[in-house]
Design a protein that fits this description.
heterodimer, A: 1080 residues, alpha/beta, Rossmann fold, D-amino Acid Aminotransferase, Chain A, domain 1, 7-stranded antiparallel β-sheet, 38 strands, 37% helix, globular, B: 389 residues, Glucose Oxidase, domain 1, 7-stranded mixed beta barrel, repeat (chain A), pyrimidine biosynthesis (chain A), MGS-like_dom (chain A), carbamoyl-phosphate synthase (ammonia) activity (chain A), CPAse_ATP-bd (chain A)
Chain lengths: 1080, 389
């Protein structure tokens, strides 16, 4: 059946800001959906609050609403746009939940909007545990055995069906309180009795434990004619009990017989049919008992997901794009398989390689959080790798992490070689347990011992054992000097760097020796069909192939075109995420527009950059010197490689520039020397002095003594950090010598040999971000952004406003002038970001980065100037004058707000600081600052109260400012509650304040008030260590109880302005295209 | 003087040579010795044991496109015939220790035990593309741990092999005497089941039948009498079947057809429901007056989309055939019912107004998706209709 003609316009809901568990995979799927539906001639209306996405580019949808994704705001968009249908399956859980809410509140019915892709009852059936279980029972699929009990006696009966260990879940307790795993009868009785007591309904669910079972996922696509296909099977190396997003996973499943695989396939299709997903992609998760193959359905998602992005990248089958087309009526056999161009989409991809996905964690950013994995996802990014064998794929994946791994590197196990100590470590669900498994082999543990502790399938462990043995051989006998034996190791995925480490040589030497043997990787194509049909798509991965005798076949088919290679950002992490991918994607688009071949290199499966559609050629490869140099040198064998873009993918490609230069590969744009100059303290200081600009007083320390001396000469407080970092890692504001000594002890561990940098901390200064694009002669300052939070809060965690909301024109002109001066002095060709601080009308330079910054997409969205594209074209040879740039001023204000992952890390303080911890951002767009800020807060998930009580507790330094805050709050009709010290200061000014106890002052205290719903807004600034400790529970409670809280005076001020605006009228919605005018 | 490519690299214990002189070095797996046949490929990721025991692979050695083969070992259940039929296997990676609760034997040991020769370490993708572009070549796998190989002799051996075209392999792969089949489909809990009270009687003509076909029929309450390929129509009809099944099998349908076609014509004239699969489909087409031809690229995989034009539904099928029925040669009273969505080739037919139909692919799967099991129901449905008349 062809597409529906009764539909004219389609509303797509995006996923909003990047958070843990919902990352840029939804930009990938959403962007695909927008493109696919627009190409069919539909009017596409999009709502997404995340400005760093490709999907919110103004030319991707017909009307792009960068507005908060709340039912109320989306309802306004519906009222305004009157879409015929709503597609809720592209924006993760956010979109599903919003769609459900709009259904339930009658909005969809009121405006006659039909849900396509997944209907309400489908979503409910899939998401409601009880309904889902009933559905599974109906089709004869097993769920974990369980029983709801009301007494201990019933529990004992239940135990007969579940057996031990058993999972005990008391009903309706917050965050699973009182639940646990009972391994013996005594524990069982204790946990059950306690659970029955604390459950408000005195009921407890007793569930069979399937921890340690094997976990699988099937990616399924179905059309409305009931054609169902499996795109990919995925097997988790980590067993049940660890969230699949935190597991190392392998595609395809490697330890199933066809009989078991087909049972799982049949079950997946049965689940889709029973749940009633008419069209689109879904995934179904299974647990399999390794002892007898018993199969249990865990859950299903009736929408595209992180795994569907992975499956799309792993197989070349674009699930989201196809799902979007199926949603408007096509059937699978009517759609083409883009990759082959000769076969239809109604087939099951088959692959002739192995894919491994490895998650990346950021526990070090959250002191206080336990680095343990469980059923709630913790990872912030992932890399995918493709190889000719599991070993090759795994080792490529490990070096894709960019955490310093070159393969199965050694890790220290406390207490080793004591077996009990190793076993204890292996039993814990820790990140990168695979490295500990390898280490256990090194310590002589047997496969059976390691298997029983980790529950990894023996197949994978045997592969690891084999790699460890090979490493041992290399250690003993050196790196093979003959081609055949070295090829054997390279086929197992050993990197030059790892081989070099094993024998204590330099990576460059190992590479030179290898290349001298004529041993190079070849590139194979991802073709969806294991070479059964020719592929017309240049989607490639490297592998070592052949017998070392004949030239192995290389499918790269290097063209004779002019080309540019764009290096992506690798796995997402805090500080380097979707914003950089946005820049890389724009570089590819821009180069393609000008007829230059755009070649993308990246290993992040969640991204738009690794969509085979984005560039002319895609290499899905680790971003290491070895992997990148090989493909660059290959690309140089035909056509003209203009150069490599290293300034768009964040720190990852920048780190490679020295190695690339050394290998004779041209680098486009700003020279690596200029980049180095900006990062090198001494050289940079020289430049600043020459330009007559100001910097906070600073120094560089290579020892603890030196640090203390410098700090004393500058004067506390100081900002201290190691050199060469992104996202402010290990950066701290230090107020005392004691703190400095503690920092030095820890930082030396963090930064190894590199020195620490010490700056005077400019208290209460206004911080500024400036983004500019330069062609080496002319500079365009694309955006001056004023931070809401004062200097000292990491710019990535700070809200900011474009244009500045409290600076005068003269100051803005001075900032622009300094930006231009810097760009010229650094010979910037491409993008540049500068951070300034303003204190007492004086501008201080904090740092300059001659590369794409995190704020580039925000600036581009806010101004309509596609600066990432312009920068890329300038790097390829064009001049600023060639572009039609809108210098503003604009009638609207854009506010960016950061989104923080504290709710994922229990026990972690939510105070902001110089260390970046946000995972994502949102943008609020309106015609005045207050409304734009209010929208940004809403989009970030904070619902600002219009009445109630404000709790104010501030450090001494902020007391004068607090008076004005309280006065404004009262004027807005709020009651003010304050701790005694603050209350006294406010009362002195004649303000009406309700004093309240601090937590340590006895009950009832402020947290009691918060928990009782008597506090609606929290302003809390702290300074001394003790105050931070004392107020910790206030911030945590605000977080868990969803009370908006601000930990800076500036943030509090902006909030009151926003509330003032909100009280004066409801927020309107407006499409980006309306703000930007006729350009789009 | 031997060509440099004829000198084995260090460590090579096996070689694959093609009739065109191509040489692929590798490590031997399974039995020692040499074997000549047609080199084809299969893109299935799972089910290597079923594939190796599929009688349709007689005369062929299989290039597995998925790199890891042997991961789950072998067992006594996942077989389509008691012993492997495919001549050999060509693998990318070495065979690993098995990991699966059902594994009983290492795949390598199983191959050795059954005298099957294989080679690992081959660039299977390159070989697959060679087959895709130039057709399935004759080839020889030679496994010799001593590492000495007479390459020119092996090339000559490949060239001397007559090829599958014109070869009747069904007779060799059929049963020697008839037998009754009562094993039903596999379940995890119970393994293979057994037929209880049969409702229908089907005679299956064995041209090299896969057991899962028989299991599917038995699972639908059919008592199945399997008879040798050269059993006469009279003898078959004398067994008074409710329906006749024409099995899959290896080789050239035209060659096997010389004796099978007249029999099939008589069976179709009897008015009994007749169902054919793969070779059975091809020979039914020949019996109906259509033509078969060798394909440039055979269909071998478990991901092939087929559209049932009678329902509009697309099914993902398991396929294994190097010959095909020319869809333009179908006589008027025969209707095309299924097409391959990969290349548009004919995948199924039926005789108008008669309970006679056939498909080119493998609805019994094993390995492969179960989407097409409905065809067995369709056949039993026709039997029930015929009986109720």
């Amino acid at each position: 059946m062809p597409k529906r003609t009764d539909i004219k316009s389609i509303l797509i809901i995006g996923a909003g800001p990047i958070v843990i568990g919902q990352a840029c995979e939804f930009d990938y799927s959403g962007a695909q959906a927008c493109k696919a539906l627009k190409e069919e001639g539909y009017r596409v209306i999009l709502v997404n609050s995340n400005p760093a996405t490709i999907m919110t580019d103004p030319n991707l949808a017909d009307a792009t609403y960068i507005e908060p994704i709340t039912p109320a705001m989306v309802a306004k968009i519906i009222a305004k746009e009157r879409p015929d249908v709503l597609l809720p399956t592209m924006g993760g859980q956010t979109a599903l939940n919003t769609a459900l809410a709009l259904h339930d509140d009658g909005t969809l019915e009121k405006y006659g909007v039909e849900m396509i892709g997944a209907k309400k009852h489908v979503i409910e059936k899939a998401e409601d545990r009880q309904l889902f279980r009933e559905a599974m029972d109906k089709i004869g699929l097993e769920s974990a055995r369980s029983a709801m009990v009301r007494t201990f006696e019933e529990a004992v009966i239940a135990l007969e069906t579940t057996g031990l260990p058993a999972i005990i879940r008391p009903s309706f307790t917050l965050g699973g309180e009182g639940g646990g795993i009972a391994y013996n009868r005594e524990e069982f009785e204790q946990i059950v009795r306690n659970g029955l007591a604390i459950s408000p309904t005195h009921t407890v669910l007793i569930e069979e434990s399937i921890l340690g079972w094997k976990e699988y996922e099937m990616e399924v696509v179905r059309d409305h004619a009931d054609n169902c296909i499996i795109i990919c099977s995925i097997e988790n190396v980590d067993p049940m009990g660890i969230h699949t997003g935190d597991s190392i996973t392998v595609a395809p499943a490697l330890t199933l017989t066809d009989k078991e695989y087909q049972i799982m396939r049949d079950a997946s299709l049965a689940v889709l049919r029973e749940i009633g997903v008419d069209t689109g992609g879904s995934n179904v998760q299974f647990a399999v008992n390794p002892d007898d193959g018993r199969l249990i359905v865990i859950e299903m998602n009736p929408r595209v997901s992180r795994s569907s992005a992975l499956a799309s990248k792993a197989t070349g089958f674009p699930i989201a794009k196809i799902a979007a087309k199926l949603a408007v009526g096509y059937t699978l056999d009517e759609l083409d398989n883009d990759i082959t161009g000769v076969t239809p989409a109604s087939f099951e991809p088959t692959i002739d390689y192995v894919v491994t996905k490895i998650p990346r964690f950021t526990f070090e950013k959250f002191p206080g959080a336990q680095a343990l994995l469980g059923t709630a996802m913790k990872s912030v990014g992932e890399a995918m790798s493709i190889g000719g064998s599991f070993a090759e794929s795994l080792q490529k994946g490990l070096r894709s992490m960019e955490t310093g791994l070159t393969g199965l590197n050694e890790v220290k196990i406390e207490g080793a070689p004591d077996k009990a100590a190793i076993r204890a470590k292996l039993t814990q669900p820790i990140p990168f347990r695979i490295l500990y498994a390898a280490q256990a082999f090194r310590h002589g543990m047997t496969l059976a011992e390691i298997q029983s502790a980790t529950k990894f399938d023996p197949w994978y462990l045997r592969q690891i054992e084999m790699l460890v043995t090979e490493e041992e051989n290399v250690r003993t006998n050196g790196i093979p000097k003959d081609k055949q034996n070295l090829l054997r190791l390279k086929k197992l995925g050993f990197s030059d760097a790892r081989l070099a480490e094993l024998v204590g040589r330099e990576e460059d030497d190992v590479r030179a020796d290898r290349q001298a043997l004529g041993l190079r990787p070849v590139y194979k194509r991802i073709d969806t069909c294991a070479a059964e049909f020719p592929s017309r798509t240049s989607y490639m991965y490297s592998m070592y192939e052949g017998d070392g005798f004949f030239e192995p076949e290389n499918e790269a088919e290097i063209t004779d075109r002019k080309k540019v290679i764009i290096l992506g950002g690798g796995p997402n992490r805090i500080g380097q995420g979707i914003e950089f991918d946005y820049c890389c994607v724009h570089a590819a688009y821009a180069l393609r527009e000008t007829g230059i071949e755009a070649i993308m290199v990246n290993c992040n499966p969640e991204t738009v950059s690794t969509d085979y559609d984005t560039s002319d050629r895609l290499y899905f490869e680790p971003l290491t010197a070895e992997d990148v140099i090989e493909l660059c040198q290959l690309e140089q064998t035909n056509g003209e490689l203009l150069g490599v873009i290293v300034q768009y993918g964040g720190q990852t490609p920048l780190k490679l520039s020295a190695a690339l230069e050394k290998a004779g590969i041209p680098i486009l744009g700003t020279s690596p020397d200029s980049i180095d100059l900006a990062e090198d303290r001494d050289r940079f200081q020289e430049l600043i002095n020459k330009l007559g600009l100001k910097q906070p007083a600073n120094g560089i320390a290579r020892s603890v003594d030196e640090a203390v001396k410098i700090a004393e000469s500058i004067g506390y407080p100081i900002v201290i950090r190691p050199s060469y970092v992104l996202g402010g890692r290990a950066m701290e504001i230090v107020h005392t010598t004691e703190d400095l000594l503690r920092y030095m002890h820890e930082a030396v561990q963090v930064s190894g040999k590199s020195p620490v940098l010490i700056d005077s901390f400019l208290q209460d200064a206004i911080e500024i971000d400036a983004d500019a694009v330069s062609d080496g002669e002319n500079v365009f300052v694309a955006g001056i952004m004023q931070h809401i939070e004062e200097a000292g809060i990491h710019s990535g965690d700070s809200a900011c406003s474009l244009p500045p909301y409290s600076l005068d024109e003269a100051m803005i002109d001075r900032l622009k002038a300094q930006t231009v001066q810097l760009a010229k002095a650094l010979d910037v060709v491409g993008l540049m970001n500068v951070q300034f601080a303003i204190k007492d009308d004086e501008i201080y330079l904090i740092e300059v980065n001659p590369r794409a910054s995190r704020t580039v997409p925000f600036v581009a969205k806010a101004t309509g100037n596609p600066i990432a594209k312009i920068g890329a074209r300038i790097m390829a040879g064009e001049k600023l004058g060639d572009f039609d740039i809108d210098p503003g001023p604009f009638k609207h204000i854009a506010v960016k707000e950061a989104v923080l992952p504290f709710n994922r890390f229990p026990g972690v303080d939510t105070l902001l600081g110089p260390e970046m911890r946000s995972t994502g951002e949102v943008m609020g767009l309106d015609t005045d600052f207050g409304r734009a800020f209010a929208k940004a807060q809403m989009a970030a998930g904070h619902t600002l109260p219009l009445k109630g009580n404000v709790f104010i507790s501030v450090k001494n330094h902020d007391k004068p400012a607090a008076v004005q805050l309280a006065r404004d709050a009262i004027a807005l009709g709020f009651g003010v509650v304050a701790t005694h010290g603050t209350a006294e200061a406010l009362e002195k000014e004649g303000l009406d304040v309700t004093p309240v106890n601090k937590v340590q002052e006895g009950r009832p205290h402020v947290v009691d008030m918060m928990k009782n719903g008597d506090i609606n807004l929290v302003f809390n600034t702290t300074e001394s260590k003790q105050a931070v400790v004392d107020s910790f529970s206030i911030r945590r409670t605000a977080l868990t109880d969803d009370i908006p809280y601000y930990t800076t005076v500036a943030g509090a001020r902006a909030t009151l302005r926003a509330i003032d605006n909100l009280k004066r009228g409801a927020l309107d919605v407006r499409a980006l295209q309306e703000y930007l005018g006729d350009k789009y | 003087m031997s060509s440099p490519t004829h000198t084995p690299p260090p460590g090579a214990s096996a070689v694959l040579v093609l009739a065109d002189g191509s040489v692929f070095w590798g490590r031997g797996v399974g039995a020692r010795g040499e074997v000549v046949g047609e080199v084809c490929f299969n893109t299935s990721i799972t089910g290597y044991q079923e594939i190796m025991t599929d009688p349709s692979y007689a005369g062929q050695m299989i290039t597995f496109t998925f790199p890891h083969i042997g991961n789950v070992g072998t067992n006594d259940e996942d077989i389509e015939k008691a012993t492997p039929v495919a001549l050999g296997c060509i693998l990318r990676q070495d065979i690993t220790e098995p990991s699966n609760y059902r594994a009983q034997k290492h795949f390598n040991d199983w191959l050795t035990e059954h005298g099957r020769i294989g080679i690992a370490g081959v660039d299977t993708r390159r070989l697959t593309k060679r087959i895709r572009n130039e057709g399935a070549p004759n080839g020889v796998i030679c496994h010799n741990p001593e590492g000495t190989f007479d390459i020119p002799a092996l090339i000559a051996m490949a060239n001397d092999w007559p090829g599958l075209e014109g070869m009747d392999l069904a007779k060799d792969n059929s049963c020697e005497a008839g037998y009754e089949w009562d094993e039903t489909l596999w379940t995890r809990e119970g393994g293979y089941g057994a037929l209880g009270n049969a409702k229908h009687h089907v005679v299956a003509v064995d041209y090299g039948v896969k057991r899962n076909i028989l299991r599917n029929l038995a699972a639908l309450d059919c008592k199945v009498s399997v008879v040798p390929a050269d059993t006469s129509a009279e003898d078959i009809l004398a067994m008074n079947p409710d329906g006749v099944f024409l099995s899959n099998g290896p080789g050239d349908p035209a060659a096997t057809g010389t004796y099978a076609v007249p029999t099939i014509q008589k069976l179709m004239d009897s008015g009994k429901p007749v169902f054919g699969i793969c070779l059975g489909h091809q020979m039914m087409a020949l019996a109906l007056g259509a033509k078969t031809q060798k394909m440039d690229v055979g269909h071998r995989g478990a991901n092939h989309p087929v559209k049932d034009t009678t329902t509009g539904v697309v099914e993902i099928t398991s396929q294994n055939h190097g010959f095909v029925v020319d869809k333009d040669s179908l006589p008027d009273h025969v209707e095309a019912t299924h097409f391959s969505l990969f290349d548009g080739s004919l995948a199924g037919l039926r005789v108008k107004d008669k309970p006679i139909f056939a498909v080119q692919y493998h609805p019994e799967a094993s390995p492969g998706p179960h989407d097409s099991h409905y065809l067995f129901k369709r056949f039993v449905g026709l039997i029930e209709d015929a009986k109720s008349r």
